[in-house]
Design brief:
Strand content: under 5%
Shape: rod-shaped
Helix content: over 70%
Distance between the termini: 14 Å
Oligomer: single chain
Radius of gyration: 19 Å
Number of helices: 2
Structural class: mainly alpha
Length: about 90
């Protein structure tokens, strides 16, 4: 693929990962809101929520790491496309 095509593909990957990060953040906020209500209403201990909370942390880390990788690649192809006289 020419660099400008790869630049477009990489930019789409970056946008997809940004949306993924937004979705994970939203789900995590909703989880913590539900956890708080459940604990207040039924006196449920943190222990029952720890595993799910840990998974949210893992998903956030993986999504952030993937976003950084896609951003790096997108910048690389954007520079290549600009150097070739194409528009990124």
């Amino acid at each position: 693929f020419p660099s400008h095509d790869m630049s477009d593909i990489s930019a789409l990957a970056v946008n997809d990962m940004k949306r993924m990060n937004m979705a994970i953040s939203h789900l995590k906020r909703e989880f913590h809101r539900l956890k708080k209500r459940t604990q207040e209403q039924y006196n449920v201990k943190d222990l029952y929520f720890d595993e799910l909370d840990e998974f949210f942390g893992m998903y956030e880390f993986l999504a952030d790491n993937r976003l950084e990788a896609h951003q790096y690649i997108a910048e690389k192809y954007e520079k290549e496309a600009a150097a070739q006289g194409g528009e990124a």
